[in-house]
Amino acid sequence: MRELRAVEFAVSTFEREWHNLSIVFYGDNQSAMIILRKGSMKRELNEIARRVEKMRERMGASFKFFWIPREMNAEADLASRDVDTDDWSLQGWVFDQATNKWGSPDIDLFADENNAKCVRFVSRLPCRGAAAVDAFSLPFLWTGALLWCVPPTALLCKTLAWMRGVRARGILGLPYWTSHPVFPRLFLPDSSPPFVKDYLMFPEGTQILNPGSCPIGELLRSIYGTVGQTDPSLQPLLVQSIEGAKASSTMRVYSGSFDKLRAYARERGLDPACPTSLVIFSLRQVQEGKSLATLKTLSASFNHFVASPPPLVSQLLSYVHQSSRRQTTVSHHGHVPRSHVDRLVQYASQNPHDLPVLRAAMGAALAFAALLRVSELVSLRWDDLNWSEGRLGVRVRRAKNDQFGEGRETFVSIEDPSPVLSLFQQYRSLTASSPWLFPSLTIPELPIKPDSFRQDLTQLCSRAGVER
């Protein structure tokens, strides 16, 4: 069905251009090629073939349909799966309100056959009914008419430059995006620039956009609205389910990665939610020598906060990821020798009343011996420790690789006497009032945060002369 509709769409799009020509169609679906040649017993499929044949007769053209293996049709197959994320438009009532205020525009410079607001429109790519393709390639379109301009956010600066350059008269639609480079040119601190005669501004949250052919946002809005109509009490649960699908630590990583993409995109006037911005920023990350893990985290954060990129973009990102493996390898930190931990313990023993030093040294010794991550270390309570016959039992309540949430237990051998045991006893006497093994110094009822512990450990290494 999809292949048949693709042929029908192509014929209807180029009906004028293909008049009296011989056209050859190649497709990787054998059934579709046969149906277009001979028809089908299924009414719906046969109707498409008949419509194609009627258009061919009107055109006076000759059509031939050939099957080719998918391997020979890779470029067209991949392009057919692409989704245009910039074909959104303003809703009809917004257009009506603008035209009632400023008059009816003569041409829509950024549209397609599905979202055009004027009879005459210019498209990004060839499509049915378009008066022209690529508004920036035809300067005469910008003069002598009232323009309707709602360009993709990445083209706002270029659109404004063209409108000012040719002194165009038009209605420009854009989001209220204060960090976009075009914003200070349109919204001065004390007044409007002389080339802006009037404007309309809609309250935040007003639904003024049609999402276009990219279905994800529209589908989510539809589901959210249906849930609200059926049982409004379930809407918060839906939001929590989406937000809580990942662990809090994973969400922090995703948020940090996407914040970097957002900052990079907005500095350059790009839309952070556009897949092209993801590709550009990924290339920048490769250029800066970032690891493959960093690139994959970036893609995962985009998938979570925005949507999965179209297949063509996903394939391109895969190439970028593969190329990063062939860049200069990154030298990771080597294994921490036991001598480093001993030096930290020795330094802490010489400063028995410096609680931050004792806490960092104690944590380093315990993490080294029990093979604990920082997140696991700082979540330990005193009652998670069990001392028995020179062996310290450590119960880890929440481990990163604990899929069933059952926790795990590990054991550490500590000689008696030993510097570590002495340090342990001294540290215990200073933190006895807190239930946490590594409490916050400002709020003892709470554990220290992982980042704060890392900072303390870094400072301790520097003071003790240990190279990290």
The spatial strand order of the largest sheet comes to: 4-7-8
State the distance separating the first and last CA atoms. 62 Å
As for the CATH topology of the largest domain, it is hpI Integrase, Chain A
Helix content: 40-55%
Biggest beta sheet attributes: 3 strands, parallel
Number of domains: 4
Gyration radius, to the nearest Å? 32 Å
State the helix count.
18
Q: Which architecture of the largest domain would the CATH scheme give at its second level?
A: Orthogonal Bundle
pLDDT averaged residue by residue? 83
Order of helices and strands: HEHHEHEHEEEEHEHEHHHHHHHHHEEEHH
Unreliable parts? none
Protein name: Tyr recombinase domain-containing protein
Pfam families: Phage_integrase
InterPro entries: DNA_brk_join_enz (IPR011010), Integrase-like_cat_sf (IPR013762), Integrase_catalytic (IPR002104), RNaseH_sf (IPR036397)
Keywords: DNA recombination
